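Session log. Operator J.P. requested a structure for one protein chain; no other inputs attached. Running the standard single-chain path with token output.
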Amino acid sequence: MKKILALALTTILISTSLSTLATATPSTKDEVVYGILKHDGSVENLYVVNIFDGGNISDYGNYSKLSNLTTRDSLNQADDKITISTNEDKFYYQGNLLSKDLPWNIQIKYYMNDEELSATDLAGMTGKLKIIILVSKNLNFAGSFYDNFGLQIALLLNNKLSSNIIADNATIAEAGGNKQLNFTVLPGNPFEGIITADVKDFEMDPISINAIRLAFDINFDSSQFTGQFTELIQGIEDLDVGAGELLDGLKELSDGLSDYVDGLNAFNNGLGQLSSGAKELYKGASSLNSGLSELSKENDNINMGALALQNTAFDAINAQLQGMGLGLPTLTPDNYSDLLSTIPDLAVVKLQLDGIVQFVQGLKGYTDGVAQLGIGADELTEGLKKFRDSSGEIAASANAIYDGAVKINSGAKELRDGMASYKEGTNEFKSKTSNINSEIDQQINKILDEIVGKGDIVESFVSDKNTDIGSVQFVLKTAPIEIPEAPSVEISEPIKLNFWQKLLKLFGLYKE
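Structure written below.
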């Protein structure tokens, strides 16, 4: 008998222990937070509908009152712990919260003819209505709802009582004889909405504010266009290398022209050897002309390559912006600066396009300079040909030739110095575009974060002890603004008198 009692006691203790462990872990649930707001946006009452699958349910929350919305069974409440067992597939219970704190501070102000009034005083008035709705972060609330939940604020204005409705940044739609105004507030952003209208006998349905975690089917593969930027980066690096090689060639050309000017000077001072010197001078000028001619032949290819590079950059950035769905028109070298200057988040893209456009313009200036230098060299060669053929007249024109050569040499040095600056620009351009892929990814992530929130794990609004939350939704409403009904006056019906009563009343003997 002792063994049987000991075994039974052990079984009871184990069962009790297992039951306690089974209900100790918070159950998976969804929360819908309902809030009754006063006219000014302050909280009058908050309650939560908790939604569970059936079975042994364990939940936490500080409630002043509990209501079983599914069955007639009683909920067990011990401090902040609530438990119940049910066979229902879905189980709902309501808890009235002790706290009245929301993640958002909501303020609603009402004005009639620019005078601030309470909502109750506003009811039934006629004039110019203005409503201001302000939403900011409640710094006393520790949760992450403000940074992860978007808000939709909706108002209804009766078409018969309202006209000339203006609400910037709101969508306005017809809804059964009313104008429905909807504002959307992205996660982590404060909000100010202003509604104005001409009203008469003013009344208004409750203002509703719904908050939910935003979910968008955004499957964005940045590699679709960053691959093009990889080609652009490689092209910029090649361009920088080519600019370095071109600079070296211009330095050699400048050094050669310096020697050429020195030779002209010696020639000018040694007219005694005019004939033989003229032949050598013409030969050197012909070589110079030939070299510049070859250099000029590449001008079109250089300009076409630069334009192609510019077009590639604009195509890639246009593809990126279309993928982001910002609704911008196609960017061109003529319009991109005006379009992007108003979007701070795309400042990096504008900076890259500025560099590309400046590069193409600078390269065009360089090729124009080469062309002009070629024309000058051609004219110099033709003049030297005549000089060679007319060496007898060289004495009179020697100084003019020398002066022209000095100008050509000065132009070549300026061209060399300009190319040196251009080389610095391509090097800086290369350094600023080397990380463009990662910068684009960062900007895309930043924009997406502003739209859908930071992506933190869904947390319970009721208690941080509830660790397995599927979803949380907020449904908030203000009180309506209504004209008070006039008190009813009871009109008593006249008492019907019988014949004897009428007779007594005739002689003043009947009293009602």
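Operator note: Residues 1-23 have pLDDT under 50 and may be disordered.
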